[in-house]
């Protein structure tokens, strides 16, 4: 049923997923003891996140012209917001999504300087919200290696973007007194999340997603499933982003950054599978898991 409904890309699919995520995340925000109505913007940001992800997926031909990834991502995003992270991580996550969009667009080799600068700018902004977002500078430099290793001018572009954000942040800090740089360095905690964990639903779900995400990342890097040679560079960037997402989980326990990778990989399996039962199973599991975990959360 779901495989037949989402096998194409139609406006109704966006309406359904937007409403589902908006309502469920909105309810979570309003019912949360430390959030409430003034944080209702989080549900709108979640909808924007879905739109960015689907744009990345279709624009870079990571899946065929269907809504499988849209559906899976929407379900996993609800789980992610309810269990994985705080709101600062979610804001940083959306900035990293925008950075990933620019990095994947480097495959056209047009305007590489602007794309590297934009990606570096978004990662720098994400770092202001959550320090360990700086891990994704690794992906930027790896992308330069993948797309244009010999042009040494490109290697200086990320540092220019970092300086731009630093100067702006410093200026704001002087006027408002946010002590933003002090907070950034304090959050580089090397104590590791798993050292003092408590065995609960949050840890179990995060651990499963992070481990599966790591396996998928390695699969993308080694060209599995069958990926055309022309698309290897894009999936290499995705693979490296998954490894950084796994390191992000190790540092602070949030597996949210692995959700896009898991969604794309599952959608590719669904679209390539000839078994109807497998297709339905892979599309229903995220939805059922979302409903069960959402109920357990409350």
Distance between the termini: 29 Å
Helix and strand composition category:
mainly alpha
Percent range for helical residues? over 70%
Name the overall outline. Answer: globular
Helix tally equals 13
> In terms of per-residue confidence, which ranges show pLDDT below 50 for 5 or more consecutive residues?
191-198
Q: Domain count, please report it.
A: 1
The radius of gyration is 19 Å
Give the overall average pLDDT: 81
Please indicate the percent range of residues in DSSP E strands (runs of 2 or more): under 5%
Number of strands: 0
Mind summarizing the main beta sheet?
none
Order of helices and strands: HHHHHHHHHHHHH
Describe the structure.
The protein is mainly α. It has one domain (88-297). 72% of the residues lie in helices and 0% in strands. The chain is built from 13 helices and no strands. Helix 3 (41-59) runs antiparallel to helix 4 and helix 4 runs parallel beside helix 13. The radius of gyration is 19 Å and the shape is globular.
Question: Strands, helices and their partners?
Answer:
Elements: H1 2-5, H2 11-31, H3 41-59, H4 68-84, H5 87-104, H6 112-129, H7 137-148, H8 157-176, H9 180-186, H10 201-221, H11 232-252, H12 259-272, H13 276-297
Helix pairs in contact: 2-3, 2-4, 3-4, 3-5, 4-12, 4-13, 5-6, 6-8, 7-11, 10-11, 10-12, 12-13
